[in-house]
Amino acid sequence: MDRRSMLRLSLSAAAAACLELTGTQKALAFSDTSAFAKGVDVSTLPQIEAFGGKFYSGGVRHDALALLRYNGADSCRIKIWNDPGNASYYPSNQAVAGYNTVAQAVALAKRAAALGMRILIDFHYSDWWVDPSKQYPPHAWAGLNLTDTCTQLYAFTTDALNQLKAAGVTPEWVQVGNEITSGMLWPLGKYDQLDNLATLLKTGYNAVKSVNSATKVILHLDSGGNNATSRWWFDAMTSRGVQFDVIGLSYYPAWQGSLTDLTNNVNDIAVRYDKALMVVETAFAWTTSDGDSEPDTMTTAGTTGFPMTPAGQVEFWQAVKNIIANIPGGRGKGVFWWEPEWIPVAGAGWKAGAGDEWDNCTLFDFHGNALSSISLFKS
Q1: Does 16 reside within a domain?
Q2: Annotated active-site residue in 179, 315, 339, 357
Q3: Of 131, 155, 171, nearest to 206 (Cα)?
Q4: Whether pTM exceeds 0.70
Q5: What is the pLDDT of residue 33?
Q6: Is 123 helix (H, G, I), strand (E, B) or coil?
Q7: In angstroms, rounded to a whole number, what is the distance separating the alpha carbons of residues 218 and 173?
Q8: Would residue 281 show up in a list of annotated catalytic residues for this protein?
Q9: Which InterPro entries does the UniProt record give (predicted)?
Q10: How many other C-beta atoms can be found within 10 angstroms of the C-beta atom of residue 281?
């Protein structure tokens, strides 16, 4: 046997070992939807792999998603953009073509489901990133009135979910919008157009439920530590008859308050609206160094007091998980680490031609070696 064949055999054996799960773990992932989700958002993984990113544990190469699953991550969040990488339109032209599409989401969801992971689909309803500072509509929807936009939103949502269903994947959760604290599909559904925003969210809810009534609809804000904003937003939507199943929050200690702020907010709003609650995005830095020339976005630990080390990542995770798990009435349902696999790889930056802003918040070092903190999901 030549060296190349021996290497392939070694990698196959290692991958098989990495994928080995107990019957209990598999049953939990597939059937116990009441279990506390310990999740990861690995939406950038296909792009990292395509541009040459590799992952290792103990010096042996492995599939990153399988490594995360083996180390206790039981749920997978995947974002969807409408038409990323279309050179004729801004901001679509800022994205690398072919990534974070519906087709990509289906393929990644199949990988995750094959590992026994529960699936969360995150619709941005945009051709590129959206957050409270920007909510660009897909270029094909730009300028449409409310009725026509709702028609497009319903069709896009149901088509994507039906493609997932045809591939054998039914998401447990679906986000209608991403970090929509300031609204979505601007200017139509901006924060100063709350009636329009409510109509768009009702359309998204109905679309999700039409494909599978058991799928839980998440409304996601970036206001993890901001109770006043959370109350204002959910009061506005519930008073307009918007239905949803889960409150989703982002919580990054560098930007969204203290752990005490998070505690006070989640304990209040989960009870106030009598809803399940999840932190669908969080992370913490393992180093103050930078893996490439792109400046990192998270450069402070906020007020947590935890060191920016792998051990600090574990402490941070445990603190956030305990806060959510102890929400009154068992309403806390899970926490997701955002992009733990986003190691610095040329071509897999935050936009076309750019570098990696997140390489100090991963659960792998700059060369793809698993950090000791990768096992935090087991805690």
Answers
A1: no
A2: 179
A3: 155
A4: yes
A5: 74
A6: strand
A7: 7
A8: yes
A9: GH (IPR017853), Glyco_hydro_53 (IPR011683)
A10: 25
List the catalytic residue out of 20, 49, 281, 357: 281
Find out whether 253 and 284 touch, Cβ atoms under 8 Å: yes
Q: In this structure, what are the phi and psi dihedrals at residue 306, rounded to the nearest 5 degrees? A: -80, 145
Burial letters for 163-188: b for 16+ Cβ neighbours within 10 Å, e otherwise? ebeeeebebbbbbbbbbbbbbbbbeb
On whether residue 13 sits in a domain, the answer given is no
Cα separation, 45 vs 64, in Å, equals 8
Print the domain residue range for 258.
38-378
- pLDDT, position 11: 40
Are 262 and 315 in contact by the 8 Å Cβ rule? The answer is no
For residue 288, the domain's CATH number is: 3.20.20.80
- Let me know if residue 68 belongs to a domain: yes
22, part of any domain = no
- Give the model's pLDDT for residue 34: 78
Identify the three-state secondary structure at position 104.
helix
- Which parts of the chain sit beneath pLDDT 70? 1-32
Peptide bond into 187 cis (omega under 30): yes
The pLDDT tens digits of the residues spanning 288-315 come to 999 999 999 999 999 999 999 999 999 9
